[in-house]
Amino acid sequence: EVEDDVKEALVQFMEKLSPGNALRDQNWGWNTSSDPCDDNWAGVSCDTRNQSVRKITLDGFNLTGSLDAGSVCSVKSLVVLSLNDNVIGGNLAEEISDCKHLTHFYLSANQFSGNLPDTLSQLSNLKRLFISNNNFSGKLPDLARISGLLTFFAENNQLSGSIPEFDFSNLLGFNVSNNNFSGPVPDVKGKFGVESVSGNPGLCGKPLSNACPPPPPPSTEKKSKHSSNDRFLIFSGYIILALLVLLLIAWKVFGKNKHKNKKTGDVKKKQVAMEVETRRNKPTSGASSGIKSTRENKSEYSLSSAESGMNASSLVVLTSPVVTGLKFEDLLRAPAELLGRGKYGSLYMVTLDNGVVLAVKRLKDWGISSEDFKRRMQKVDLVKHPNVLSPLAYYCSNQEKLLVYPYQPNGSLFEFLHGSQNGQSFDWGSRLHVAASVAKALAFIHEELRESGIAHGNLKSSNILFNKNMDPCISEYGLMVVNEIQDNSIVAQKNSYESNNIIGQIYSTFKVDVYGFGVILLELLTGKLVQNNGLNLATWVNSVVREEWTVEVFDKALLSEAASEERMVNLLQVALKCINTSPNERPNMDQVAGMINTIKEEEERSVSSVE
Ligand SMILES: Nc1ncnc2c1ncn2[C@@H]1O[C@H](COP(=O)(O)OP(=O)(O)OP(=O)(O)O)[C@@H](O)[C@H]1O
After folding, report:
1. How many angstroms is it from 474 CA to the middle of ligand 1?
2. Cα–Cα–Cα angle for 324, 329, 331, rounded to 5 degrees
3. Pick the residue with more confidence: 184 or 281?
4. CA 342 / ligand 1 centre spacing (Å)
5. 511 is an annotated ligand-binding site residue
6. Where do the record's region annotations for Disordered lie (predicted)?
7. Cβ–Cβ under 8 Å, residues 66 and 88
8. Whose C-alpha lies nearest to ligand 1, atom 19?
């Protein structure tokens, strides 16, 4: 029997859909005295194994009321909601996001109006979304973040704003014609014709025949004055610099005042260095716990000494419009807060004058030449993926290497799993989504950078950050060089993940990432820390599995939400393959992504199997 509260919620939902019972047929069921599954309520399909309501299909039932999302979404097992061809009006309420397992959502040919709620984009399992032939208006929520979406039909509404950058390579069906969308049509990868976007007067670009106007010149008159001023300043800077260098050479050649000069120069530069130091080293609570103090390595941060040659690049090399015009000096001048000091450097949160917040990574003794560093960063910058955080800019000289990233305020996977919430509200579906997205992104970037031999090198849950849409992004890609990496599995074998004095064998750096990813999977599955009271997670999981106590490894939160044990075991098997002590035995990321995708699809199928 279906539980009473589910029954009541369904009846309430129907009351709102068909107000006053006027049009309701007695034979439909939909009353609390009968059972939706046993008594075959009209339009309801159940999973016979556990008597749960999976599908509601009320197409063409002449329903004239409104959609009570709050009620229907309290039926947690619901995967299909189909209400096409009725006369349902009103808004789509934001509670629709509670229909977490919804894969198919059909509202076409009704009289819905108003904005679509932003929360619609939280339906991360959605495959098919049909809202055509309604009166929806306003901007679309960021539906592009629903990575598994296969069809989106929204024609004949009054929707406006720009068309989201869907993953068109994945979309099977797409139509937004006859709305008020504007701006350039995103690259539909040649998959959809003009009919899917026509009837939007403000749209331009392919596949439409009207090309988009060229972007306005970057500066107004005032601005161009400004930028020519800037240019003038830069040129004067160069000239002054050249003069200084000439002067220096002259002094050296004539051997006059050499000693004295050097001293004053150093003193000045040291002042700068000190300023940077004091600002940067502002202690932050908890930031240094468990992280080695680098105070004794103060010279690492000094801008004096060899830097005085000033022949190295002294400007931040820009790779993104977000920080156009940003200079190295701006970074130094801006208020900075130390976020952490890891093995490979320190991370600062820097707030620029214009309010842009950056995360600046200051790399520690990286034995890489400036040229190699530049080349490397340029290659990394070429590879863009929505789940990979690209650096905005970088700075390098022989002494100093900085990486500038956009600051991600939503925390890291590490914090999600092990922070104050302890992963309690991080359900199985979301964990599987994170695993699949990260695997897919890593497989992509590995493939793109395989020839260059650039892997992540330091993959771990604190380097998986959630962006503003709460999508996981791999950060700090490529900041470790192949031959500096030890294979973590060797370290793990010795039961000491952190210990880096063991001379590990150097393997294909890509397989080191696979290992790191495997450990992330273990964290997702167990909710446990990688290193806990001297116990290494990989070692512990291996030993528990060997003893055939597999279920013991899983996070209690997952077990209590009744996540599919079979699929958790499948994911665990992928993890164990990834952390194989022999790198050659590990799958590559492409295979890993494929395996996880299969598990995700099984999960979706099981959730939507309603027959
Ligand atoms: N772009 C960012 N935006 C917001 N927080 C970030 C960003 N990059 C890193 N963080 C967070 O800041 C903290 C410190 O980062 P840092 O990279 O120094 O630490 P780590 O990853 O533990 O060390 P390392 O990478 O040196 O091994 C981490 O909690 C990390 O999740």
Report:
1. 11
2. 70
3. 184
4. 8
5. no
6. 205-226, 260-303
7. yes
8. 342
Q: What is the pLDDT of residues 42-53, one digit of tens each?
A: 889 888 777 889
C-alpha distances in angstroms, 351 versus 235, 392, 565?
28, 14, 45
Greatest mean pLDDT range, 47-56, 185-194, 525-534, 574-583: 574-583
Q: Is 342 in the pocket of ligand 1 (CB under 6 A)?
A: yes
The answer to whether the beta carbons of residues 56 and 2 sit under 8 Å apart is no
Residue 444 structure tokens? 């992509």
> Exposure of 166 by Cβ count < 10 A (0-12 exposed, 13-18 middle, 19+ buried)?
buried
Beta strands 44-47 and 52-57: pairing type? antiparallel
Q: Which two tokens stand for residue 214?
A: 């060229």
- Sign of the torsion formed by the C-alpha atoms of 203, 208, 210 and 213: positive
**Ligand 1 pocket, 65 CB below 6 A?**
no
Residue 137: HSE in the Cβ half-sphere, 13 Å Cα cutoff: 5
pLDDT > 90? residue 260: no
CA atoms within 13 Å, Cβ hemisphere of 295: 6
Is pLDDT of 89 > 90? yes
What does the CA dihedral 98, 100, 101, 105 come to, rounded to 10 degrees?
Answer: 70
Q: Is the CB of 388 under 6 A from ligand 1?
A: no
**Residue ID of nearest Cα to ligand 1 atom 9:** 463
What is the 3 state secondary structure string of 150-206?
Answer: CEEECCCCEEEECCCCCCCCCCCEEECCCCEEEEECCCCCCCCCHHHCCCCCEEECC
Distance, CA of 447 to CA of 453 (rounded, Å)? 10
Closest CA to 345 of 480, 495, 249: 480
**Cα separation, 422 vs 528, whole angstroms:** 9
- 309-365 pLDDT, tens digit per residue, is 333 344 556 566 667 777 777 777 788 888 888 777 889 898 887 788 899 988 876
Work out which ligand 1 atom sits closest to the CA atom of 389: 1
Tell which one of 339, 473, 486 to mutate to probe ligand 1, the residue whose CB is within 8 A of the most ligand atoms: 339
- Dist. CA 434–CA 471, nearest whole Å: 8
pLDDT over 60 at 277, yes or no: no
**Residue 245 structure tokens:** 């260098």
352 ligand 1 Cβ < 6 A: no
344 pocket-lining for ligand 1 (C-beta < 6 Å): yes
Choosing from 285, 341, 347, 465 the residue with most ligand 1 atoms within 8 A of its CB, the one to mutate for a pocket test is: 347
Q: Which residues does 511 contact at the CB level (< 8 Å), separation at least 6?
A: 487, 583, 584, 586, 588
Any atom of ligand 1 within 6 Å of the Cβ of 347: yes
Q: Which atom of ligand 1 is nearest to the CA of 405?
A: 1
**Contact criterion met (CB below 8 Å) for 95 and 71:** no
CB of 458 closer than 6 angstroms to any ligand 1 atom:
yes
Phi and psi at residue 187, to the nearest 5°: -70, 105
| Ligand 1 neighbourhood includes 14 CB (under 6 angstroms) | no
Is residue 100 within 8 Å of 125, Cβ to Cβ? yes
- CB 463 less than 6 A from any atom of ligand 1: yes
| Ligand 1 center from residue 420 Cα (angstroms) | 18
Residue ranges of E strands in 514-603:
531-532, 535-536
